């Protein structure tokens, strides 16, 4: 399947809502954090698959603003797992020419994680085979609120006038202004909702829902999602005949 996928136009940017870790663990009588540990293995596999087919941008919804409302034990476990991932994978990510970035209200993260994250971002900043973005303490509505606050300050300081606000102004004040909009959004676990993820950026993204729980989502499932994307006719609001 990999060779066939490479012959067709690839999505430049794939974003993934990694859902189902907790249910995967509960179905097996395990603690929820065991599901997150298993899910971390899937992250490694999907990063590898992205490299193998030539995906240039991969954005993972790793921890949402709403996730802070989970039990203290689960949040603590997730933070510990994230810290371990950054320390353990940093060298491998760098060796595979992967650039790591992060978006979200990162100031809410524990200081040890922000330190390790900053190290990883700095060490990998010149890599360009794959740009891996981790959405941490992230929410799409929260991003837009932060964006509009920046624009309000620009107006207040006289840098722009209200009638100068357009899509370009809004896009340039998002957490990562040079990130291309996702071509393909994948959500696992059979749930069919966006869950406050990249609300501005996914306006014209193709959406693919998988019934697989995230820990069971393999390279083959990822490639199937890309294959499905390649079959679709992306019109961006135009009628088919308008594109000819």
The coarse overall form would be globular
Largest sheet: 6 strands, parallel
| CATH architecture grouping | 3-Layer(aba) Sandwich
As for the CATH topology, it is: Undecaprenyl pyrophosphate synthetase
Report the CATH superfamily.
Decaprenyl diphosphate synthase-like
CATH class term: Alpha Beta
Structural class: alpha/beta
What is the domain total for the residues?
Answer: 1
Q: How much strand?
A: 5-15%
Number of helices: 8
Helix-strand sequence? HEHHEHEHEHHEEH
Distance between the termini: 30 Å
Please list the strands of the largest sheet in the order they lie side by side: 3-4-2-1-5-6
Give me the count of strands: 6
Radius of gyration: 19 Å
Quick synopsis:
This protein is an alpha/beta fold and 244 residues long. The chain is built from eight helices and six strands, in the order αβααβαβαβααββα.
Tell me what the structure shows.
44% of the residues lie in helices and 15% in strands. The chain has 244 residues and is an alpha/beta fold. It has one domain (2-139, 181-231): 3-Layer(aba) Sandwich (Undecaprenyl pyrophosphate synthetase), CATH 3.40.1180. It has a 6-stranded parallel sheet, sandwiched between helices. Helix 5 links the parallel strand 3 and strand 4. Helix 2 crosses helix 3 (32-53), helix 3 (32-53) packs parallel to helix 4 and helix 4 (72-95) packs parallel to helix 5. The two termini are 30 Å apart. The model has no long low-confidence stretch (mean pLDDT 95).
């Amino acid at each position: 399947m990999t060779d066939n996928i490479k012959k067709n136009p690839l999505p430049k940017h794939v974003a993934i809502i990694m859902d189902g870790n907790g249910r995967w663990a509960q179905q097996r009588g395990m603690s929820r954090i065991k599901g997150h540990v298993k899910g971390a293995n899937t992250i490694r596999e999907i990063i590898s698959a992205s490299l193998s087919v030539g995906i240039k941008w991969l954005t993972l919804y790793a921890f949402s603003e709403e996730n802070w409302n989970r039990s203290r034990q689960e949040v603590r476990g997730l933070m510990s797992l994230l810290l371990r991932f950054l320390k353990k994978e940093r060298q491998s990510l760098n060796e595979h020419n992967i650039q790591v970035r992060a978006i979200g209200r990162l100031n809410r993260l524990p200081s040890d994680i922000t330190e390790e994250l900053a190290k990883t971002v700095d060490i990998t900043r010149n890599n360009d085979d794959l740009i891996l973005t981790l959405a941490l303490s992230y929410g799409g509505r929260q991003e837009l609120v932060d964006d509009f606050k920046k624009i309000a300050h620009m107006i207040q300081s006289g840098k722009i006038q209200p009638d100068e606000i357009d899509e370009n102004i809004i896009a340039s004040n998002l957490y990562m202004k040079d990130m291309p909009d996702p071509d393909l959004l994948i959500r696992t676990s059979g749930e069919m909702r966006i869950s406050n993820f990249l609300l501005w950026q996914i306006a014209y993204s193709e959406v693919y829902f998988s019934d697989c729980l995230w820990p069971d989502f393999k390279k083959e499932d990822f490639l199937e999602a890309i294959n499905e994307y390649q079959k679709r006719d992306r019109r961006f609001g135009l009628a088919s005949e308008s594109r000819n």
